[in-house]
Amino acid sequence: MITLTYPEQSSRVNLAIGKFKKAITELGETWTVGSKKDSNTHNIIIVTKDMEENQSNGLYIDPSISAEGFQIQRVVDQDKFTIFILACDESGAMYGILELCEQLQNYGDLSSVNEYIINPKFSFRALKFNLPWSSYRKNKSFDVQKETVRDLNFWKSFLDMMMENRFNVLTLWSMHPFPYMIKPKNFPRATPFTDEELADWKEFWTSLFRMAKERGIETYLVTWNVFVSESFREHYDPKSISDEKFYHLGDAYSTDQIKQYNRECVTQLIDEYPDLSGLSTSLGERMGGMSPEERQKWVEDVYYQGMKDAKRPVKYIYRAPFTIDPSITRDAIEKNDFMPEPVWLELKFNWSHAYSTPKLRMTHGGLSDGLEGYWNPDPKNYKITWMARNEDFFTLRWAQPGFIREHIKGNGHDYVGGYFIGSECFIPAYDYSHSRESDHFQWSYAFEKQWLYYMLWGRLLFDPSTPDEVFANALGRRYGQSNGRPLLEAYSSVSKMPLALASSFLTLWDFTLYSEGFLSTDTSGYNSGKAFISLEDLLNTRPIESTYLSIRDYVDREINQESTEGFVTPIQVADTLEKDSQHGLELIASISDTDSPVLCCEKADIKAWALLGLYFASKLRAGVSYQMFVKTGDESEHKKALQWLESPHANKHWDDLIEVTSSHYVEQPLMHIGETPFSWERFRPQVLEDIDFVRSAFKN
């Protein structure tokens, strides 16, 4: 029997205790709730700062425990254990209970519970979630999400996942969400819904924000700037109807009425949704032709003033402008004294492809040169928050804890408040990629298939020292303890493939790389289906990572007998890819068979990444041989290039990739290639075109 003593009035503690009670029951234990310690039972006692004065047992909150942090203490009295969870606040107590729950699941009893203090590394641990309404991107992949994302059952599951993984911020991105949330008092026809329809929407948003708050999760609404609803244009500004580009990019079009409308929307939104934590907007799209100062003035006149006019203060995320002197941004933030501190300054890490190198090489708008102005000297009232965008893999499961730790270690300076994790081109709700007829399909939502990805980021952002054992144990609880470690090691090995590709292949904005499909797009590739990274593309690119040598630079150095010391060569990348891929394949071959179809699905994803790694390795070697032939005329190099592209190398690896993915994945919408559906099989003809490319060079 275990007696539980905790602040029952706390929604956060109650949610965590509910999960703890379930874990106790699953282990065959019984529990009861008491108001004080029971010497006849084991005890779990939760103490938060506001309860300290009521404690008669001499406990105190260690002054080193920070907000959201917790301490676990264990006391043995004869044969009875008492576990104390001490925290400054409800969130800390909640996380402490979840930690204890995990330990109990791993060890099976209270005698093995570890004692320690854990404080969060970052106070801002956010997920980026694009909404399918008034969405910045338009594609079938967003259209199919509208029903699921409107379902509060989905949000309950998603928010529970966030809570369990220690995420504490949900950012909801939509160009102009106001018509779905309020009826502006002075512009009532700007909202296209009836009173009854809008009431349904308000119930949805109110419930969503309340559920998030109950789990210690702040909610921010991120909008774009000089936008209005279609109903506003129709009823209040009909001359703007002729502007066919009003949806997305374009020159700034703003009137006093548009500013008044947006300003009132901001104020009314804050007043009507008391559980909404904060706002943000973008100083970019629809501001063409405006100077940096004019853009900032518009945001101040509309968003800042709208926030000031509201009945309560809200927090703010300042999205760093794309091409602006950091001093302008600093001044704009540091001169404001009405926003709760810190203001969160969002910067895209390596533009739209954080899954490249953990070194900061560029941000939105270009190279990282000059960014130091944001943090040198130290900010007065804001913190940098890195946007770790993932536009590179949506379907295959990915897990590489070493990369995340290295990222945090290299970029988690004192002036950094945290990270955003998420995508512009993918909504992790309805899973449209997996065959629902497959016995693998045993989850409800896409994020549940990618459970380890979210666990890795959330737990490591909270505590970067979290050991691999935690993640191996989580895999073991699902698929058998003996399988946990080899599964994690296999994922860690093969998940380096997209990082190697993104480091080797310079990409910029959202659509320019899709690593798991070996695709790169630009304006010519978008919506044409011709996005495959050909051998010629590899020859023409340059790496984003400055320590990497391109194929052409490497070959030139080899021919000129110049040193490559201090650089990573294409051959070294290929060797590492092959080694890691083979290691991953060996590990999953060693995993014992079970009756779990989902384990088969996990192993299939590992195999798919391994085959992509082997394919990339063969293609790099083919590129080096081809370039050697071009520069020297050595026909043996031409022969080697063909050999690396044909079976049993690149061609065979791609065919095997098709086989393993087609067994459980279906053709799916992909924003990167517009209306063209994606599958690995669809790009097999372009795999063969590489062979023709090399052969034609010999003929010429």
Automatic annotation (TrEMBL):
One GO term (biological process): carbohydrate metabolic process
Gene3D superfamilies: Chitobiase/beta-hexosaminidase domain 2-like
Superkingdom, taxonomy of origin: Bacteria
Annotated keywords: Hydrolase
One function term, GO molecular function aspect: hydrolase activity
Name of this protein: Alpha glucuronidase N-terminal domain-containing protein
Organism: Salipaludibacillus neizhouensis
